[in-house]
Design brief:
It is built from seven helices and no strands. The chain has 132 residues and is mainly α. It folds into two domains: 50 residues; 68 residues.
Length: 132
């Protein structure tokens, strides 16, 4: 894989992470644009990724996907975003889209929320994340 494609995938992944809540704040946009410039991604290419909502290519191995998902969830949590059913569902869908097993994603999310001492019981989380 060439370096340019890798740089575009990095920015694309960062954009997808920033947009998980449905919007990209101006501060997030500005920061990601600066990162893109540092990675020698033109503003035109950056805007193209943003407009087309391209999804980055999944990491090749399952271990890379697991690590990427776990980091994604932790970064989401570290950003201070509210932990609620809507966000749990988005994170769950993201994990499944990455090719991880729904059961593993459910267990990971449950453990993270349990450690955050959320008021959700295991039944609530499991019922909410059950595949219909």
């Amino acid at each position: 894989m060439d370096c340019k494609k890798e740089r575009l995938q990095i920015i694309s992944g960062m954009l997808a992470s920033a947009a998980v809540d449905g919007t990209i704040k101006q501060s997030e946009h500005d920061f990601l644009l600066k990162v893109g410039r540092h990675l020698e991604v033109s503003e035109k290419e950056f805007n193209s990724l943003l407009k087309e909502n391209r999804i980055y290519v999944l990491p090749a191995s399952i271990s890379e996907r697991i690590i990427k998902f776990y980091r994604f969830v932790l970064s989401y949590y570290d950003q201070g975003k509210k932990i609620d059913y809507k966000n749990i569902r988005k994170l769950y869908q993201k994990g499944v889209e990455m090719g991880l097993s729904p059961k593993s994603v459910r267990k990971t999310l449950y453990n993270i929320y349990k450690s955050s001492q959320s008021n959700m019981s295991s039944n609530n989380v499991n019922d909410f994340l059950s595949v219909n």
